[in-house]
Amino acid sequence: MHESSRVRWSEFAIEAIIRVLGFSTIGFVLLIFLFLLREGMPVFFEVSPDNLFGTRWYPTFGLFGTLPLILGSALVTVTAIVIALPLGVATAVFVREVAPGWAREVLKPTIEVLAGIPSVVLGFFGMTIIAPLVREVLGAPTGLTAFTGAIILAYMALPTIISVAEDALDAVPKSYRDASLAMGATRWQTIWRVVVPAAKSGIVTAIMLGMGRAIGETMAVMMVTGNAARMPLTLDSLFRPARTMTATIAAEMGEVAQGSVHYHALFGIGIILFVLTFLINVAAASTMFKQRERGGLR
Amino acid sequence: MARGIHPFLIRLFPTTPTDFAIHVQWTRWILTGLLCLGITLAAIGCGAQATESEHEAPSQAAKTIENKGSDTLVNLALAWAETYMQLHPEVRISVTGGGSGTGIAAMINGTVDIANASRKMKPEEIAAAQANGINPIEFTVARDAIAVVVHPSNPVDGLTLQQISDIYTGKITNWREVGGEDRPIVLLSRESNSGTYVYFLEHVIRMGDKKSDLLFSPDTLLMPSSEGISAEVRQNPNAIGYDGLGYVTPDQKMLAIARDPKGPYVLPSVETVNDGSYPISRSLYMYTAGEPTGHVKDYLDWILSDGQKLVPELGFVPLK
């Protein structure tokens, strides 16, 4: 009796420690969010809404229009996903459904290594190789454009999209494929009409996660998009410079005096960015839960 | 279950297996809560301590000088620091860039001994510093010409201030309009934390008119560094940029600048800055927190005397 209660007590202790570590992660996220709110909320009172959501971002002269930054981020991110989506899903299908076993063993770890390339390296690559190409081949006035940023971001989002989509394809039960083939469908028909639709929610999750990665990327984007806070409303905006929210924070955070309006404005952008990323993650999570509820796939 | 005992006491003093399970549940939650609280308090405590010691650091460390700010000045400041440290091995000087705004912000926040700036501190910045108990003292340490640069293949050789202003506000968008080829103009600028940016806006775009509210065109590309401007000017025949004379490399073409269309068109150089004929030149500053004393004073005195010999080697203009 004495012995067993001691065992139980040590178990409590260990469990409690693990629990604390788990909860403290949530605690730290909350603290960071509170800090962000504390530093960023004042801007919503200091700057009038029509200035804050105006079209001109000249922080040195009291103009804090975040609209060009939000639209710039959206333009670059959405274009990146449009480029990365077909590539990523096709690669995942190839790796999971088509490639022979040995190729799969090589491809999977290689794709995961891609995710580890530092973004400053990709930014430099974009600045020296892709930007001149965009200018010369597409005839844009400068190569530092939203499109150049989107190409780099697409490349950075690819590993995430491929590995999550691949997992989703992997989770489609073999019986689906067997049934399809038994009905006389070709391999292509099986992949395109059965396997990919069955993994759809997983693929949507992959896109959302890729998007989350793309919208939060800073360094490479700052180096290749040209950082011009213009409203991307014309048709050729994709091939003109753009300025994203993250690049703005990174470029200007060093300059500001603590507690100034500009300082609060940068944290305000941080809040907007946090909310956007949060919504994207919620969307990703909810499709993932839907998939679980329907069952059968895992 | 033991009857007649309050349920809460059962949880604290378990007698049956069921009660024991409830007891376990409770203990877990209480322990978790206490530990979480402890960690949070510890974290806050550490944070508070760290900020305090950061503020005290500059005064405690007697022989180190923290020097930060203008990217225009950073190479010159490094050369000064290296030479001075060779002459006075007991002094350690750390120099970082980041832009004039960065240096001034650091001065206001009390984290540097000397802030480098390629513009004067604004009255509100001085007020902010004084509110933090810091009285910034200004020293002019060198002079600098701002060169306007284009791609070497660009046939345009000179521009008037008015033309540069029109180009940067977006009124002129094609090189054809100023005697060049039929090409779109790509505007390059430094980031808005740069003193060069503010100087260029006030003295070139607004042409010194304090009432003017002209701004850089929203199409202006804000490059994160001087090197970013050089790289784009070097490879893009459409580009126009501006930068300190010390950053202009032979693979960029400097434009001759005229105050009015009749001329004269003047190229930037040490001579034309000193005789005042080149229109876009400015002073470079160092700010100290209060009247400098001790090793900071010695360092500044040296910069203003012997240190001036290094200035022309780095492409700047020494004080007369």
Describe how the helices and strands are arranged:
The complex is a heterodimer of chains A (298) and B (320).
Chain A lengths: L1 H39 L1 H5 L2 H4 L4 E2 L4 E2 L2 H32 L2 H14 L4 H20 L7 H25 L3 H9 L4 H12 L1 H17 L2 H6 L20 H8 L8 H34 L4
Antiparallel strand pairs in A: 1-2
Helix pairs in contact in A: 1-13, 4-7, 4-10, 5-7, 6-7, 7-10, 8-9, 10-13, 12-13
Chain B lengths: L6 H6 L4 H44 L3 E6 L1 H17 L4 E5 L3 H9 L5 E4 L5 H9 L4 E15 L7 E3 H9 L16 E5 L4 H11 L15 E3 L2 H10 L3 E6 L8 E2 L1 E3 L11 H5 L6 E9 L4 H11 L16
Helix pairs in contact in B: 4-5
Summarize the structure in words.
The complex is a heterodimer of chains A (298) and B (320). Chain A is an all-alpha fold and 298 residues long. Chain A has helices at 2-40, 42-46, 49-52, 67-98, 101-114, 119-138, 146-170, 174-182, 187-198, 200-216, 219-224, 245-252, 261-294, and strands at 57-58, 63-64. A two-stranded antiparallel ribbon of chain A has the order 1-2. Chain B is α/β, with parallel strands linked by helices. Chain B is 41% helix and 19% strand. Chain B is built from 10 helices and 11 strands. In chain B, helix 4 runs parallel beside helix 5. The longest helix of chain B has 44 residues, at 17-60. The termini of chain B are far apart. In chain B, 39% of the residues are buried. Residues 1-5, 7-14 and 47-61 of chain B have low confidence and may be disordered. The interface between A and B is large, with 46 and 45 residues.
Which properties best describe this structure?
heterodimer, A: 298 residues, mainly alpha, two-stranded antiparallel sheet, 2 strands, B: 320 residues, alpha/beta, two-stranded parallel ribbon, 19% strand
Distance between the termini of chain B: 97 Å
Largest sheet of chain B: 9 strands, mixed
Choose one word for the global shape of chain A.
globular
Q: Can you summarize the main beta sheet of chain A? A: 2 strands, antiparallel
Low-confidence stretches of chain A: none
Give Rg of chain B in angstroms: 29 Å
Question: How many DSSP E strands of chain A?
Answer: 2
Biggest sheet strand order of chain A reads 1-2
